[in-house]
Amino acid sequence: MASDQLSRRRFLKGVTTTALVTGAAGCSRNDREPTEAEGVSTRINRVSPTDSPAPTESPTATGTPTSTPIPEVVAEYGDRFDSIVNIVEAGADNQGSEPINDVLTKAIADNTLVYFPDGRYKLDYLEIKDTHQFGLVSIPNTETVLVPNGPISEIGNQFINLMWVSDVLLDGFEFDFSESDVGGALRVIAEGDIIARNLRTRGPLPDQNSEENHVAYRFEVQKPDAKGLVERVVARDGGHDGGDGVGIFVGKDHSGSLTFRNCEVANFPNNGLYASAPGQTLDGYTGNNGDIHVRGGRYENNNVANVRVGSTGSTVKDVTVTVDKVPPALPGGTLNVRGIWLRERNDLLVEDCKIEFTENAAEGFGAISYNPMHGSSTVRNTEIRVDRDDYNAIRAIDSSRGGTEAPLHFENVTVTGTAAKGAAIEIADRPKTTFQNCRIEQLGQNRSGILLIDSDNCVVADSTIRVSNQPIATRDASVDRENLTIETLSPAETTATPSVDPTITPPANQNETTR
Q1: Among 69, 285, 328, 501, which one is least packed by beta carbons within 10 Å?
Q2: CATH code of 255's domain
Q3: For residue 416, is it within any domain?
Q4: Domain, as residue range, for 236
């Protein structure tokens, strides 16, 4: 085991440890931030970690006789691997004429970096098992394209499958799925650390066969002390209407810590970032509750949820979510579009995010939505804009079919937009929920601010509510109002046709305390 530990230390040399350290909401772990990375790149050009010192001299590569490492590769990776292999000099075709599986599988080995000169590489289904401290990278600032050597009916819905690996580096590839029925998952099931960055999928996932699971990317780290960084992964072409494609999926056996930084995921019918499985107890399994941390990035027009988390201590920070059209639907036309969905467990944090649902967005449960099984968590310093009528900016649905009744906490949350009808915020079965320093300003007709249902001892404090209907409505709930600024809009100040929605009118006995 000593050699395994040595490999891990060498692998992580030059990559800051804090880039993979994240924490839990509501406790000291949450205050330990990963190092911020560069902004989202529109090209798959290598961006070296900002904390990696430039070597004063080029390390000596000890690769196979066919390897001729170029300076850029040696400078960036030479001190992390015993061998460096040029895949073209090893015999691989980079013109896209012949599959390279045989050459690649021979080149991949422990303590080995395989680099790809620019070009186009065909692959049949590729499976690598039980290999440690290896890397697959492109040359910095070049275009390296991997394309399946046939349709999904021949290759299967998994394209590249790395299983029970550790200390893996993947950097700088484009996956070309632009031809009809071509595409599959990059799947990394790791025991130890992984780094995957600068990856792009071009073309929609061939996800029409609902009997199969279709995922563009899947990552999980199965050892509790292991970490993964997934950075600048781009999958914007989504799936098909009536398909079931997922942008990025985290499996239930994830036990360590995964950070998704500055990724872009759009137009998938079955979740953009689907990362709640480790926290779920469902269909006879219990997830391993590995934490998930989403940092930056854009998630747009994904059905079900754009970002979905649900393991203890997970965090979503500096994320932008936009829904400005109807996304692809699941089989049968099912649409339920959420921005950020907190699915299970507790002690989660959403912070410094921007979420927008335009008037053209599809129906759904809320820009920030809570499953009844989710426990207590916090949203702070987050801006939500909703222009779609009768759509909630925040919604916690009732727990009549089972679930928790843990409180939710909102700090410095802003809700704006022109939405009419319904309530900007609807909270059910969440006693002791608090709103602190929040602003709710919805300009549509018959729009309420906060609707509390079956939730006693709630608090709304130091906040501003500007709506056309009830600022705070209750049903079998009690709320303590403290230092509020409230304005009821006149019809002339609203932006929608007047309508009547008696479901949000509070009963005569509101059981409210104002001070």
Answers
A1: 285
A2: 2.160.20
A3: no
A4: 120-364
Half-sphere exposure of 322 (CA within 13 A, CB side): 10
Q: Rg (Cα) of the chain, in Å, rounded?
A: 25
- Confirm if 294 and 307 have CB atoms less than 8 A apart: yes
> What number of residues does the chain have?
515
Q: Which has more pLDDT, 475 or 38?
A: 475
Confidence of residue 19 (pLDDT cuts 50, 70, 90): very low
Indicate whether 493 belongs to any domain.
Answer: no
Q: Which of 360, 412, 353, 352 is nearest to 391 (CA)?
A: 360
Q: Tell me the per-residue pLDDT of 123-151, one tens digit each, with 9 for 90 and over.
A: 999 999 999 999 999 998 899 999 999 99
Amino acid making up residue 362? A
Residue 477's pLDDT is: 97
Return the amino acid letter for 477.
Answer: A
How many Å apart are CA 466 and CA 489, to the nearest integer?
7
Tokens representing 261 are 């930084």
CA dist 397 and 405 (Å) reads 11
Q: How far apart are CA 146 and CA 183, in angstroms?
A: 10
Q: How far is Cα 290 from Cα 194, in angstroms, rounded to an integer?
A: 14
Q: What is the pTM of this model?
A: 0.86
CA distances from 320 to 136, 160, 358 (A): 30, 29, 14
* Residues in CB range of 369: below 8 A, 6 or more apart: 305, 338, 339, 340, 341, 342, 392, 394, 395, 396, 397
Residue-level pLDDT at 504? 43
- What average pLDDT does this structure show over 177-181? 96
Structural domains of the chain, count: 1
On the question of pLDDT at 4 being above 60, the answer is no
Residue carrying structure tokens 């013109």: 95
Tell me if 272 sits within 8 A of 305, measured CB to CB: yes
- CA–CA distance, 32 with 30 (Å, rounded to integer): 6
Residue 514 placed within a domain:
no
pLDDT score recorded for residue 313: 97
Please write the tens of the pLDDT for every residue from 460-500.
Answer: 999 999 999 999 999 999 999 999 999 999 888 888 444 44
Residues 6+ apart with CB under 8 A from 339: 305, 306, 307, 321, 323, 355, 357, 366, 367, 368, 369, 384
